[in-house]
Structures are given as structure tokens and as C-alpha cells.
Structure prediction request, 272 residues.
Amino acid sequence: MTDHDKDQQNRAEEFLQVFKKGAEFTHDLLKENERLRYQNLEIEQQLQHLHASSAGAPSEELLKKIEKLEMEKKEILGRIKHVEAENIDFANRYVEIENENNMLANLYIASYQLHSTLDFKEVLQVILEIVINLIGAEEFSILLLDEKTNRLQAVASEGLENKEIPTFELGEGIIGRMAKTGENYFIDELEGYERDFHHPVVCIPLKIKEHVIGVIVIYKLLVQKEKFNDVDYELFTLLAGHAATAIFSSKLYTESERKLNTIQGFIDLMTK
Prediction:
């Protein structure tokens, strides 16, 4: 495993730990709510017993005890109300966490698929499937950088034809700048967006350490979102890291195989 792969794995594990802590906190809140309800029930029973035992004229000591229990009951009811409000919020968040964890688990599985082949076309196809299934993109493209011309060109697309996507000069426009700087780009406002090849919804550089080899550009999502959240940013970054490594490895392998075949053909020609 390379240092880059280890870095990607460490980031993913840290990402998972954040959500595990959130799930544990939600569980603790539910337990606290249950404890408070049980405590409130005990006070209710004590109050009923005291009221029953003071059917006649209650003593001053008994009245003080009842008043104290009534105050404790009021305080506990207030705490229960507060915890229940937090429970609702964290219960919703817990569902999100489960979905996010499932998504990350799927990303791990997908990353194994990515690194299980050195066939360049297969790698591109796997990336397309990952972006569709995990990101929920409908129209997008993978553009790779030609270091001889310093231009980005589409090599694989979904919902679009490669020939529809223009080429971009390194440093030119949003896509060219992201490829040059290695920074992620997310559109500020998703609502009302109409496809513009020069102004994508998302542009994620495919980079190995600081070396950018291409970008993934997304123009349309299957499910319309109001905005992107932290999970989206992390997911895009993790995906891009795995995709870049797989593309780079498969390209090197393909080029070396082609050179070996050329050399072998030349040797065969010379020995005949």
C-alpha cells in the first residue's frame, strides 16, 4: 500500500469515527431519557403515597416534603422535555449517520473493485458506476490531462457523449483552474441550475498527492439537492483519491504492456 493509499484510508477511518461518536451520543441520550422517566415515575408514586397518607390535616413536615417532591418533579419534567427535543434531532441524525456509514462501506467495496483491475477501460467503467450509485450523478464526465498539450479531454461520460464535452486549457475557466490548483469546486446555488459545460455543478480534481491527472465534472444529479454538506465533500475527495490512483496505475500498466509488445514484436522480427 502506498503512502497516498494509507492517507486516504486514514482519512476514511477518521471520518467513520466522527459518525460513530454521534451514534454513541444518540444512544446515551435515549438512555438518559429513559432514566429520567423512571425517576419521574418514582416521584409520582411517592407523591401519591404522601397525598394518601395525609388524608386528614397534613403536618408541616409532610407539606414541605410534598412541596420538595413537586419541585423535583417539575425539574425532571423540564429535563425530559429538553432531552426529548434533543432525541428527535439526534434520532434524525442517527438515520443520516446510518446512511452515511453504508455509503462509506460501499465506497470501500468500490475501491477494491477499482484496484482489482489494471485494465484502463475497466477502471473508467467502475468509476462511472461508483459516481452513479454513490454520488447519484446523472450527467458527468471524466476528463484527463494531456501533459504534452496541457489540455483536459473527456475520456468517459455518463448521460453525455465525450464529443459533447469541450477540451479545457490547464488554468482556463473553472475546470482548468481546479485542475491547476487541485482544489474542489462546488456550485454555490443548486436551485435553478442549467447545464453549462464551462460551469459544472461539481469539479473534483483527480490527484495523487499534489499531482493532478484529471478531473471529474458533474452537470446533473439524479436527486436534486438544495446544497452540498460536509459528507458530500468528504465522499467526493475520498472517491477522487481512489479513482486517481486506479487510473494512473492502469495507464502505466497499459503503456508498459504496449511498449513490451512493441519490443517483443521487434525481437521476433529480428530473429526470423
Remarks:
- Residues 7 and 68 are 58 Å apart (CA to CA).
- The beta strands are 137-146, 151-158, 168-169, 185-186, 202-208, 211-221.
- Helices lie at 3-53, 60-115, 120-135, 173-181, 230-271.
